[in-house]
Amino acid sequence: MTVYVPTDVGERSRFLSKLEMNVPPADKLVIGGDWNVSLDEALRSESFYADRSDVKALLELCTELVVVDPFPMLNPGDPGYTWFSNLFRDRQAITRRRLDFFLMGEEIHNRCTSVRLRCSPLSDHKPVIADICLSIDNSKGIGFFRLNNEVLKEPGASEWVSKHMQSWERARGHFEATADWLDGGIAITSGVLDVISRILARERNKREAECKRRVEDEEERLDGHPISVMVWAEERERRMKEWDKLQEDKQKRWSDILRIKGIEFNDKMAKETFQNLQPRRAQLQMVELRHPFDAAAPSACSASGMLQYATRQPQDGGTTDLTEESDMWTDTKVKLQITGRLALDRPLALEETMQTLKSMAKGKSPGVDELLVEFYSANWEAMGPKLVDLYNELLTCGKLGKGMTHGVISVLFKKGDKTKVQNWRSTSLLNVSYKILAKSLARRLAQYLPELVKGDQGAFVKGRLIFNNIVTAIETLEVVQSEGLDMTVLLVDLEKTHDKVGWSFVLTTTLRWMGFGEAICVAVARRHSFSTPIKLVATILGEVGYGSRRCVKRELLRQACCSY
Questions:
Q1: What is the superkingdom listed in this entry's lineage (predicted)?
Q2: In whole angstroms, what is the distance from residue 507 CA to residue 180 CA?
């Protein structure tokens, strides 16, 4: 739908009010045109125009039709002015506004890949062009289930986990390796807790539906004989209290979930309020991708095509000694002390891994085994010793299981053109059993990083802040300006190493050159060498957990990987 909104404020307000009443809300709604009012200024609370009637009418239109302007998200930092006034020579000023824009429903907004402006000599308004992907492959994967933490409060659940892991010991002889045996035990535990969670959810829903039905029955009886009105009114009040009690329990559970995620809510909330604060689909979908380096290649719109463009082929497996090809390591004089090498190579202790578990954040998304940090905290006596035994095998000659090393990459949109893969941030969803090992080794390594990494590295080292370098740069500029020094200040921004540095650079070459022991090098190498194919999921053609396809395993050091 195209619109041309009147220029007069009063007429504009009436036009927008009528438009709101005549356009039904729809996910596939697109309204574009000359609105003669800036939505940017309307959304700015301190704006001079914020309380004007036409501005309020435009905001009410967006709220009622559930439409948004995609331009700010796809072009952050770009004012996107579409109209320029004539030059006011008496005050040497010119007025600029973004008066032309699109308003899109949720589904079309997710399919919009870019919004751009184009100069035109025939009008004082710039044309606005939106690219929308209309052809979408709707195939979906199997999805992922997240374990409800309420299951852990059931006393029978923890008791079952303990008995299961004890009885699972008898099956150890049927597996070639401890890793495969533990993978099987964890998979069974996850599946049973999944079933328990669904049963408990079904019982809660049945209990709430029964309370609602009983209240409605009493309300119908109130319309009966006048003599019995007070009796049924008292019965209705009693049953309403039962229903209120269920709602209060749910509200407390929702508040706890939000508090873990850092969202404070001081009033009672309904189900709709909780869903608005924790939406199922908070991120945009990936609907189209251009080839990352071949401009002549066609755009990919299917799940398989986008996955082909988004993934890259595996590099080296981390076994090449790069010192034979380059002498760059000869300038690295710092070495890990013998005491540090022995400390990093020593076996992991149960108490050490338990402290690691306590330091891990709660409320995070789980890996494919669905088990959260809260699960391992509640069942550490049953799970902890078996995990520690496996971790210590890895420090010698063992390996982790395929299930434990199975990661899921979720891509989240950052900003800019949605058809460019570099504008999507990749995040790995890893199993907690895997992250306990990684974080335990990282906590050990953190003690020795300050003596291995020079002081000009201001971040990611214990006791250092990136803010220190920022303050140093600011103070340097102040000295240059105050003393009037004749010099040039260069800001050198080195390209990120993520996705470019292979594991041979880190493992076979750098760690061993700096004197790291064999155990820590083997542990890091085997964590990645035996990882299973990764699934790229989430925002590709669906909600979280859908549109999944197996993609090729990569061996590069990447930001989304569970590196230290």
A1: Eukaryota
A2: 25
In percent, the amount of the chain with pLDDT more than 70 equals: 82
Tally the residues of the chain.
564
Strands 424-429 and 408-413: antiparallel
- The rounded distance, in Å, linking the Cα atoms of 188 and 204 is 24
The 3-state DSSP class for residue 78 equals coil
What is the spatial distance between Cα 205 and Cα 425, in angstroms, rounded to a whole number?
Answer: 37
Classify burial at 252, counting beta carbons within 10 Å of its beta carbon; exposed 0-12, middle 13-18, buried 19 or more.
exposed
Q: What is the value of pTM for the model shown?
A: 0.73
Distance CA 545, CA 366 (A): 12
Q: How far apart are the first and last CA of the chain?
A: 51
The rounded distance, in Å, linking the Cα atoms of 395 and 392 is 5
Give pLDDT, residue 556: 40
Task: Name, in order, each residue with C-beta under 8 angstroms of 376's C-beta and a sequence gap of 6 or more.
Answer: 357, 383, 384, 432, 433, 436
Higher pLDDT, 315 or 321: 321
| 63-67, 341-345, 465-469, 512-516: least confidently modelled range | 465-469
Q: How do residues 286-301 score in pLDDT, each as one tens digit?
A: 778 888 888 888 888 8
Distance CA 105, CA 43 (A): 18
DSSP β-ladder status, 100-104 and 30-34:
antiparallel
Query: If you write DSSP's letter for every residue of 144-208 in order, what string do you get?
Result: -----GGGGGSHHHHHHHHHHHHHHGGGGGGSSSHHHHHHHHHHHHHHHHHHHHHHHHHHHHHHH
Total Cβ atoms within 10 A of residue 309: 19
pLDDT at 270 over 70: no
Sign of CA dihedral 197, 200, 206, 207: negative
- Residue 554's pLDDT is 43
Mean pLDDT of 191-210: 89
- Average model confidence (pLDDT) for the chain? 80
Q: Which of 252, 257, 255, 242 is nearest to 209 (CA)?
A: 242
Residues 6+ apart with CB under 8 A from 390: 178, 179, 182, 398, 400
pLDDT in tens, 92-123: 667 888 999 999 988 888 888 889 998 877 77
Please report the pLDDT score of residue 499 as a whole number: 57
Q: Any idea where the domains of the chain sit in the sequence?
A: 2-132, 149-277
Nearest to 309 by CA among 427, 418, 423, 420: 420
Q: Any idea which fold 2-132 has?
A: Deoxyribonuclease I; Chain A (3.60.10)
How far apart are alpha carbons 509 and 523 in whole angstroms?
Answer: 15
Residue 205 sits at the vertex; the CA angle it makes with 204 and 211, to the nearest 5 degrees, is: 90
- Helix or strand holding residue 114 (H, E): strand 112-117
Q: Tell me how many degrees the CA angle 66-67-68 measures, rounded to the nearest 5.
A: 130
